[in-house]
């Protein structure tokens, strides 16, 4: 089976950080796993090098856009080499083959009638390469996504008929349950599209660093960065040229960060529909790595270089931590302290020590050569069930469950040593000890194979010690004879400097104390009341906000609340809710909001309104 796996092509306006590494390691792990299953894989990554942002960054660095792009692109290439990423191809949007493909794509859409010329006027965010209407902006005309200032642009532009594909997109989402993963992100996209799509500006004239529109009378237009960038997934396969690798497109999986979900889950499939091409099998959007709750940013100064982590710990440790720490799609805080704990408790103790103890006993009792003596242990079958669950999990892109199930199997192997005490049993029943070690070695063998897409170096060492090849077919084979080799420690225990660990621990305790405790005087400042919903409606220009008119008994209030993705406004009329009523009023999307409606957040980030169990008088005080 052919499988096409892609990362986004990374924008060359700055250096790579741990967030870029996370996306690429996810894709690399999945590519390695599919190769392990004997799929024919084409794994693509690369760099996005056109656009106004690059032109301005180059100017600040006193160099040409191409020279600037060359430098940053090479840094990405070198980083993936250092992180042992197994991509089959690295594409650049400045590649001539890519540029020619984009021109052909533009012409094909144009000739179909899906591209037309008009004029655009609106607010433009250079950082996000996106246009916004006035109602979509935050206060002071700031971008709703990156919070940076927008610019008012008025210029002639070519437009793509995105609105034409609104119904087709909604049908695709509904008919293909796995089209967007996780489900919470898919629901966000559907809600956005259901609000109505406007045609998309796909060319610019205010800068010239990009691919020229391939029409003789419009050479001043350059193709908008997202049509240019997204087309890399086709140009890398030779689309509209030799098309040698186009069969891979039938099974395409895009791994992306959640901040570019709209472009990949709305614009991209619409472009493909215009080209009469199959749509991706899945667009998988992961969450962000945060530092103390904040997204990594050069301006804040909290960017983490993945090579610093590799140099301090190891590449295998970095890969394991990133993939095992949080469910795919969730955000997570990077913590060096937690990483050290996971390395020591899971990689060193649960996995590495199991291998060392088992091979040491095999050497001491059987000179590294073992043969099965007919005793079958039920624990080995139980471990096999966890291995099957791990395979199911990674096929569903649940990478943390994939790893946790493998380590549940390893825990069973460790418990077998504690339960049967081979050091004591050897005195009375040598054959049973030999069978016991064979069963444990088979669990280790299966773990070695399934962990090989993540722990790429340590599993190679382990395979040499077990004297096996890392082959998927071996998972279903119970090996009855082992001729082992001695094995160096797979992982070494790591420690942070004591002062640093104490500092982090103290800081966490202080933060917890600050967050967990308030005084009765603090609580007395809060005024919460029961209010009844008189009317409720969506806020134009916002996919999250609902506007409420509330009855508090002796007064009425207007309040905005970001729960539109979780509730139909019509269903809320007449219900009683809890209002933080002495919160300072503020203006949101040009609407006055006089208080805060209280809700609880589930693990899947959905919101649930708080309301009284039994009806109360409107305006009743909570306390």
TrEMBL record:
Binds 1 zinc ion per subunit. A motif ('HIGH' region) lies at residues 10-20. Residues 522-623 form the TRNA-binding domain. The keyword Repeat does not apply. Its main location: cytoplasm. A motif ('KMSKS' region) lies at residues 295-299. It comes from Campylobacter canadensis. It catalyses: tRNA(Met) + L-methionine + ATP = L-methionyl-tRNA(Met) + AMP + diphosphate. NCBIfam families: metG (TIGR00398), metG_C_term (TIGR00399), PRK12267.1 (NF008900). Homodimer. Its cofactor is Zn(2+). Its EC number is 6.1.1.10. Is required not only for elongation of protein synthesis but also for the initiation of all mRNA translation through initiator tRNA(fMet) aminoacylation. This is Methionine--tRNA ligase. GO terms for molecular function: methionine-tRNA ligase activity. Belongs to the class-I aminoacyl-tRNA synthetase family. MetG type 2A subfamily. The keyword Lyase does not apply. Keywords: Aminoacyl-tRNA synthetase, ATP-binding, Cytoplasm, Ligase, Metal-binding, Nucleotide-binding, Protein biosynthesis, RNA-binding, tRNA-binding, Zinc. It is found in: Cytoplasm. Zn(2+) binds at residues 125, 128, 143, 146. Pfam families: tRNA-synt_1g (PF09334), tRNA_bind (PF01588). CDD domains: MetRS_core, tRNA_bind_EcMetRS_like. InterPro entries: Met-tRNA-synth_bsu_C, Met-tRNA_synth, Met-tRNA_synth_2, Methionyl/Leucyl_tRNA_Synth, MetRS_core, NA-bd_OB-fold, Rossmann-like_a/b/a_fold, tRNA-bd_dom.
């Amino acid at each position: 089976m052919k499988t096409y796996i892609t990362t986004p092509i990374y924008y060359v306006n700055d250096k790579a950080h741990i967030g870029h590494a996370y996306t690429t390691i996810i894709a690399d792990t999945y590519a390695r796993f599919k190769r392990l299953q004997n799929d024919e894989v084409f794994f693509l990554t690369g760099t996005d090098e056109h656009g106004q942002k690059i032109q301005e960054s180059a100017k600040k660095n006193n160099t040409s856009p191409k020279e600037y792009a060359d430098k940053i692109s090479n840094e990405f290439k070198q980083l993936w080499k250092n992180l042992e990423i197994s991509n089959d191809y690295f594409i650049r949007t400045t590649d001539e083959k890519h540029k020619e493909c984009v021109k052909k794509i533009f012409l094909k859409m144009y000739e179909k009638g899906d591209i037309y010329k008009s004029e655009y006027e609106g607010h433009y965010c250079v950082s996000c390469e996106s246009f916004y209407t006035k109602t979509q902006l935050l206060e002071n005309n700031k971008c709703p996504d990156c919070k940076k200032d927008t610019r008012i642009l008025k210029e002639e532009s070519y437009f793509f008929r995105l609105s034409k594909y609104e119904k087709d997109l909604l049908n695709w989402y509904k008919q293909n349950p796995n089209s967007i993963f996780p489900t919470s992100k898919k629901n966000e996209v559907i809600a956005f599209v259901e609000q109505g799509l406007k045609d998309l500006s796909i060319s610019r004239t205010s800068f010239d660093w990009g691919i020229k529109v391939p029409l003789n009378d419009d050479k001043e237009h350059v193709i908008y960065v997202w049509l240019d960038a997204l087309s890399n997934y086709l140009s890398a396969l030779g689309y509209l040229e030799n098309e040698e690798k186009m069969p891979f497109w039938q099974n395409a999986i895009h791994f992306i960060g959640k901040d570019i979900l709209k472009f990949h889950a709305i614009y991209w499939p619409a472009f493909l529909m215009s080209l009469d091409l199959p749509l991706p099998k899945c667009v998988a959007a992961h969450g962000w790595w945060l530092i103390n709750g904040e997204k990594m940013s050069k301006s804040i100064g909290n960017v983490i270089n993945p090579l610093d982590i590799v140099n301090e710990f190891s590449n295998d440790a970095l890969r394991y931590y990133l993939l095992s720490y949080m469910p795919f799609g969730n955000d997570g805080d990077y913590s060096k302290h937690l990483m050290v704990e996971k390395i020591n408790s899971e990689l060193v103790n649960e996995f590495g020590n199991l291998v060392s103890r088992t091979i040491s006993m095999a050497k001491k009792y059987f000179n590294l050569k073992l043969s099965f003596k007919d005793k079958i242990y039920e624990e080995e079958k139980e471990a096999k069930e966890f291995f099957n669950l791990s395979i199911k999990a990674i096929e569903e892109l649940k990478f943390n469950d994939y790893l946790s199930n493998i380590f549940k199997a390893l825990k069973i192997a460790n418990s077998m040593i504690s339960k049967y005490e081979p050091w004591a049993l050897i005195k009375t029943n040598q054959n049973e000890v030999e069978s016991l070690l064979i069963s444990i070695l088979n669990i280790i063998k299966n773990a070695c194979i399934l962990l090989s897409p993540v722990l790429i170096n340590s599993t190679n060492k382990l395979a040499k010690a077990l004297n096996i090849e890392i082959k998927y077919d071996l998972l279903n084979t119970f090996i009855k004879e082992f001729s082992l080799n001695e094995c160096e420690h797979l992982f070494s225990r790591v420690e942070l400097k004591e002062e640093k660990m104490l500092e982090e621990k103290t800081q966490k305790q202080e933060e917890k104390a600050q967050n967990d405790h308030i005084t009765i005087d603090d609580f007395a400042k809060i005024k919460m009341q029961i209010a009844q919903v008189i009317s409720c409606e969506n806020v134009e220009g916002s996919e999250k906000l609902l506007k409420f008119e509330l009855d508090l008994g002796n007064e009425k209030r207007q309040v905005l609340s970001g729960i539109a993705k979780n509730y139909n406004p019509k269903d809320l009329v007449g219900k009683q809710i809890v209002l933080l009523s002495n919160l300072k009023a503020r203006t949101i999307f040009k609407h006055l909001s006089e208080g805060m409606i209280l809700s609880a957040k589930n693990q899947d980030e959905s919101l649930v309104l708080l309301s009284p169990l039994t009806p109360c008088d409107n305006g009743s005080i909570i306390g």
